[in-house]
Amino acid sequence: xxxxxxxxxxxxxxxxxxxxxxxxxxxxxxxxxxxxxxxxxxxxxxxxxxxxxxxxxxxxxxxxxxxxxxxxxxxxxxxxxxxxxxxxxxxxxxxxxxxxxxxxxxxxxxxxxxxxxxxxxxxxxxxxxxxxxxxxxxxxxxxxxxxxxxxxxxxxxxxxxxxxxxxxxxxxxxxxxxxxxxxxxxxxxxxxxxxxxxxxxxxxxxxxxxxxxxxxxxxxxxxxxxxxxxxxxxxxxxxxxxxxxxxxxxxxxxxxxxxxxxxxxxxxxxxxxxxxxxxxxxxxxxxxxxxxxxxxxxxxxxxxxxxxxxxxxxxxxxxxxxxxxxxxxxxxxxxxxxxxxxxxxxxxxxxxxxxxxxxxxxxxxxxxxxxxxxxxxxxxxxxxxxxxxxxxxxxxxxxxxxxxxxxxxxxxxxxxxxxxxxxxxxxxxxxxxxxxxxxxxxxxxxxxxxxxxxxxxxxxxxxxxxxxxxxxxxxxxxxxxxxxxxxxxxxxxxxxxxxxxxxxxxxxxxxxxxxxxxxxxxxxx
Length: 525
Hints:
Layout: H1 4-9, E1 11-17, H2 24-34, H3 59-64, E2 71-77, E3 80-86, H4 94-101, E4 106-112, H5 119-131, E5 135-140, H6 149-160, E6 163-166, E7 168-171, E8 179-182, E9 187-190, E10 200-202, H7 219-234, H8 240-244, E11 248-253, H9 262-272, E12 279-281, E13 284-286, E14 294-302, E15 311-319, E16 321-323, E17 326-330, E18 335-339, E19 342-346, E20 349-352, E21 355-357, E22 361-365, E23 375-377, E24 395-401, H10 407-418, E25 424-428, E26 434-438, H11 441-454, E27 459-466, E28 468-472, E29 486-491, E30 496-500, H12 503-512, E31 518-519
Parallel strand pairs: 1-3, 1-4, 4-5, 5-11, 6-11
Antiparallel strand pairs: 2-3, 7-8, 8-9, 9-10, 12-13, 14-15, 14-23, 15-22, 16-21, 17-18, 17-23, 19-20, 19-22, 24-26, 24-27, 25-26, 25-29, 28-30, 28-31, 29-30
Organism: Peribacillus asahii
Subcellular location: Cytoplasm
GO molecular function: GTP binding; GTPase activity; translation release factor activity, codon nonspecific; translation release factor activity, codon specific
């Protein structure tokens, strides 16, 4: 039997980040294909064929061809156990992505070769840099016309402020895309090869083809050799240390849609990506190979199985070994919990898991015990891992059930979906009306869709616009402070919150009520 050390060192847990439509979900599918987890890769565009991306399991994702929730997938490949977290690309669901990035040891950044660095990519990259997460870059869609490779490298370094090292280099692009010059494996991988056995062409010590080949007659080949020489002389040096601390990103070129360059990327990624690392807690660093089991909840998802109306809490294991049926302590409450029902994932396909170790992501069936950010451990020391980020909601709607006879289903649905963390629930102090707060409009659309399809409740949502949100540092507040420009509400934890019409209304309130201390607990933008 492999030791705990061997098992932990074989784990690779990463998130894929990108701007929408850069090819993130397609790359995820192809990685699963190489891992043997699926037999046939569906793309998000293949709606007419009835094939959908494995990682897009929610009905609205299949309809729109977008990812709006983080999916977890696991597969074995070459003695490694790989955990992929496919994150939402849409900016309205950044909060889910930010929390997911707290649960990984590295990140894969997908860049569209034609568009370069886009807004969402930049935001998510900054979160990775803030945490010192190693970042691997896959420049996608080389079979289409795009920006020049040297221009893309310069953009990565200038816009993101990170050093790059191209592990391979494209030979042409678009209609003239011939393949990649693999610097790391000292070979050329042909994009189109009639003979599969002749797909890889070896290079000699000088970096040129060992045997005569028609490729040598192409001006693209000569141009590539010149660019490789330029990279060797003026480019950054390869450094495993810099990769590990997130200051140098290995760059790979390829085409996820045609599966070209994906396996080459996967092999190199597994070699240089870190195994599970120590985690910061209120009691100091927690060693992933510690005998004490520990982990934290970074996501809660309702109704992954519509037939059973279940709730799954996603747990990142941070130390020790999980065994089904074990008893742990929930640090927030100090109460013991028996972990008898657990699962592992391939998107919405699940299997009962009996054992898992640090680095793995497992699902715990939740009957209302867990909250996002909860720490569970077998240690007697009730420590907590780092607090997970939460955004301040900016857009608000008033929500009611269209059919008053369905109030029970309405309340159940709204409370379960709110616990997932994408939307926040508030209740007005005077009228006890329900208000929903979110970062983006799409979150409301997804909420409405899920209430209708998962809880059979039609809802009415009345927009009340954008608000400036501030919590109150007090157990009691004069409810007469409610006005047309500052709505007094309570959040789902019964804490008082003011929703101000704008920044001017906030400043006016502060001037008039200097004794009332307002604060914003959600400090990540």
